[in-house]
What does this fold into?
Amino acid sequence: MSPRISELWVYLAASPLLGLTFTLLAYQGALFVNKRCHAHPLANPVLLAVAVVVMALWATGTPYRTYFDGAQFVHFLLGPATVALAIPLYAQLGRLKRMAVPLLVALLAGSITAACSAVLIGRLFGASAATLLSLAPKSVTTPIAMGIAEHLGGLPSLTAVLVILTGILGAVGANGVYALLKIDDPAVRGFALGTASHGIGTARAFQVNEQTGAFSALAMGLNGLLTALLLPWLMPLLLRGLG
Amino acid sequence: MLKAITLLLLFQLAGEAISLLLKLPIPGPVIGMALLFAVLALRGGPGIELRETAQQLLQHLSLLFVPAGVGVMLHWQRMADEWLPIVVSLVASTFVTIAVTAWVLRALIRHGLKQDTMDPLP
It folds into this structure.
């Protein structure tokens, strides 16, 4: 690089502008590819955008901290977006009231399955205690999961990554599970996806239709609450006998 | 737009305050969501401005996960050391959770339909 360009790079790389702009560009590129693939679940926008940003940061030797200084403005919007989920939820109020008992029972089953299966399978295959504690809240939306992991003594930033991988897996694979079990009610599809795969599942569910999205958002919110209450009790049992 | 954003932030703020003051393990935004839902249920629904703003924000929900997702690069060593338990656990647990939740919910709905006639689904 000529001295001028490298000076410019040093300046831009240190300002939040570059990280923020690049995040938006990568995401819109990912949306474009997703559209060209007819919204195929494997062309998941989060997966594509994260891959592009990670490769760009590696190629330029930019540390994550520097990138996050810019990207935090996007990250911040997770809070108000979580609050905004109350609105599609409200649109399903009538159906929610009618289905309250089945929904709560299914939620309890799903929430316990998510945490227990993740920790026990991880243990079976020899994961360390810190990894297990970070895995436990993997089905819960990022801000809640990070809070839970911190509370339990896991690694919040590792949890964030595991949560996002879980979300992508659910968004990519849910249709296969539904085909296998012959599940076609959009409310059931949405609720199960939101329980297992939180916000990324919900984002995928909103792509399918509004009703699937609303039930997914409901499940995500309720599972966040329930997991936060359950895990402090469950974890000592699941980790019993581990050093 | 501006009013709606302010409203969302106010509910988040109320949620954060409740979470801190009562030392709840539930994060503020989730309490904020529950509060807003309760207010909407009491008042009979959101205004058009709030509905449109929420729709715009949620349409690009995926974007908001990108910064945290890029954090994968901080954990490369641990992921390399423990890739097998992590991959097996994530894949199996996610699909088992989807299957269990969907199966239980469908079974309960069918059971309920047999017992009493429900309104036709919207």
